[in-house]
Task: inverse folding
């Protein structure tokens, strides 16, 4: 076969890549429209603010929204400091010796474990062994473990991308390592770190397998860390699987999708402002 | 009396010996230029003076460096205090991605100065010393990365002067600047030497001849020759120095 002329090849590549991008965007749009077309008609103020009635056949999804928010907030509050702290230690405080490599390898492996395994682990450790029961606490802890590798890895990448000159200058002015990390490295790495945290918020909002075993699926409004609670994603799963109410399932899915899009847009907007201020 | 005395300094990166038996004295309020081809050890030597060279894993240092009569390689040396006293200006201007104000007061805050009035006073004094105050007094909140290359390098010097060092180490401070900016920074150095001791590493022999009082020539980790700049450039004692400054080598 004859090779294409470079200019023709360039044109073909451009068209090909454009088509691939288009497919990606089309798939995303299709999913969103598919859900929204079926879900939007169900949505109303009441759907958001009323508790489910009759297993979710009627009423709204308020208690599952509260459960989802509580689980996510708890998970991120636990995972973010742990993950960012680990990332700082790995990148700034070690020479990259065998211990660092083992920790990093461990985090990578953790990232590859299916979420249902985390669910099972959380069930055995938190629900039964530590007797937290099916609760927001058990679910939040389990989710936190699941999010850790993502947060560690994205934070590490963000911290590594901070130019080494900044550290050198900071040391040469007589700063300690900690001062350098908190005053120079972290502010520069913040957009990357926040992106990682937002990704993990998205993941925990949409998680089912890890939470159904640990937070349970109670439909009552949770009142404490020890209440069992159903998340929106689990609610959707149960409504659809048990055939309780497909319209309400799509309504729940629509809320989930809108929430995740909203969080991503908000972060994008905030980060843009932040980046403009700092560079 | 010499402010810096170096005695039998050996420096190794792993097995590679980057500095061999360096002995020299650096006098107060003078500009000492270190010249030599790339990889000759002059930058490594500069970094031994504020102990930045041994931040890297696998280096070893023997010999002594006395600053104000105290051995900075003695165990228990306060590195933070040392680096406050001995500051570094780097090859490329490297302001933090912060405002002009935050850049200049960075070192002061790190050393615990909080009072806004005191910070402001030092800020003004430092920016005036590098002739940036008039240009920047209305732009203190602007991000320092928006300044020109020369302004950035002056700002980096101001950031350093703010912590009131005694010794300024300069690692090819003009290599990223154009001719006019280089001339301006050289004028600044001539002014600064009234109050500070300056050690500058440069590739540029004309620069060494123009600005320095004393010149040292490094080759392959050895200090081949050091003396009054005019003498070194007009009557080098070592044939290797002569080869280098006459352009036969390097």
Result:
């Amino acid at each position: 076969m004859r090779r294409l002329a470079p200019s023709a090849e360039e044109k073909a590549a451009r068209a090909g890549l454009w088509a691939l991008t288009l497919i990606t965007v089309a798939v995303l749009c299709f999913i969103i429209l598919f859900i929204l077309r079926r879900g939007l008609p169900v949505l109303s103020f009441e759907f958001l603010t009323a508790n489910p009635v009759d297993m979710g056949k009627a009423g709204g999804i308020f208690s599952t929204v509260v459960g989802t928010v509580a689980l996510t907030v708890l998970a991120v509050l636990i995972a973010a400091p742990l993950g960012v702290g680990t990332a700082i230690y790995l990148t700034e405080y070690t020479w990259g010796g065998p211990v660092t490599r083992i920790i990093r390898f461990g985090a990578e492996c953790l990232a590859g474990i299916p979420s249902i395994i985390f669910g099972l682990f959380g069930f055995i450790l938190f629900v039964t062994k530590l007797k937290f029961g099916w609760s927001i606490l058990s679910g939040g802890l389990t989710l936190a473990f699941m999010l850790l590798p993502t947060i560690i890895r994205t934070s590490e990448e963000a911290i590594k991308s901070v130019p080494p000159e900044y550290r050198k200058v900071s040391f040469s002015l007589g700063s300690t390592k900690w001062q350098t990390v908190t005053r120079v490295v972290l502010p520069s790495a913040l957009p990357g770190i926040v992106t990682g945290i937002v990704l993990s918020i998205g993941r925990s909002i949409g998680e089912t397998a890890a939470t159904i075993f640990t937070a349970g699926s109670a439909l009552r409004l949770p009142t404490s860390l020890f209440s069992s609670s159903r998340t929106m994603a689990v609610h959707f799963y149960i409504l659809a699987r048990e055939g309780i109410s497909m319209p309400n399932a799509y309504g729940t899915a629509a809320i989930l999708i809108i929430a995740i899009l909203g969080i991503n847009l908000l972060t994008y907007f905030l980060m843009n402002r932040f980046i403009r201020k700092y560079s | 009396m010499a402010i810096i005395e170096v005695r039998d300094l050996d420096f190794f990166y792993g097995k590679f010996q980057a500095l061999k038996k360096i002995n020299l004295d650096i006098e107060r309020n003078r500009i000492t230029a270190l010249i030599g081809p790339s990889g000759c050890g002059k930058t490594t030597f500069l970094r031994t003076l504020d102990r930045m060279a041994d931040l890297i894993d696998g280096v070893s240092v023997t010999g002594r460096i006395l600053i104000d009569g105290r051995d900075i390689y003695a165990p228990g040396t306060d590195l933070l205090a040392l680096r406050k006293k001995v500051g570094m200006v780097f090859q490329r201007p490297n302001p933090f991605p912060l405002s002009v104000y935050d850049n200049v007061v960075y070192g002061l805050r790190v050393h615990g100065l909080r009072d806004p009035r005191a910070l402001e006073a030092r800020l003004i004094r430092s920016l005036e010393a590098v002739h940036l105050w008039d240009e920047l007094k209305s732009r203190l909140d602007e991000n320092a990365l928006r300044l020109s290359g020369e302004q950035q390098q002056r700002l980096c010097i101001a950031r350093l002067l703010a912590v009131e060092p005694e010794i300024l180490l300069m690692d090819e401070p003009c290599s990223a600047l154009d001719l006019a900016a280089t001339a301006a920074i050289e004028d600044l150095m001539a002014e600064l030497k009234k109050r500070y001791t300056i050690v500058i590493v440069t590739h540029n022999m004309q620069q060494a001849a123009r600005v320095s009082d004393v010149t040292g020539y490094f080759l392959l980790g050895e200090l081949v020759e050091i003396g009054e700049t005019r003498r070194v450039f007009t009557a080098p004692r070592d044939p290797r120095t002569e080869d280098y400054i006459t352009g036969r080598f390097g």
Notes: Chain B has one domain: 2-245. Residues 44 and 53 of chain B are 6 Å apart (CA to CA). The two ends of chain B are 34 Å apart (CA to CA).
